[in-house]
Q: What sequence folds into this?
């Protein structure tokens, strides 16, 4: 699970850093609860809209990529949350 955790966190972080205007404010943390890995994305207040996107399309895409990565490795469930 540790390998999956590191890969998924770095994947989400690299996507988010590419999307925001202030990449130095990006902080990605993770926590495990049973077989669920929760990845929390912290960005500046001005960049939250860029991560969520219109009608949530961007964050849905990030979640889909993270879940596909976990399925590829045979890992557990992944949740990606934007925290302000």
A:
């Amino acid at each position: 699970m540790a390998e999956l955790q590191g890969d998924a966190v770095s994947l989400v972080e690299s996507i988010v850093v590419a999307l925001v205007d202030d990449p130095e404010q990006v902080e990605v943390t993770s926590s495990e609860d049973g077989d669920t890995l929760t990845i929390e994305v912290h960005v500046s207040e001005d960049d939250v809209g860029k991560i969520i996107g219109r009608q949530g399309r961007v964050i849905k895409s990030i979640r889909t990529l993270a879940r596909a990565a976990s399925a590829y490795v045979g890992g557990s469930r992944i949740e990606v949350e934007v925290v302000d």
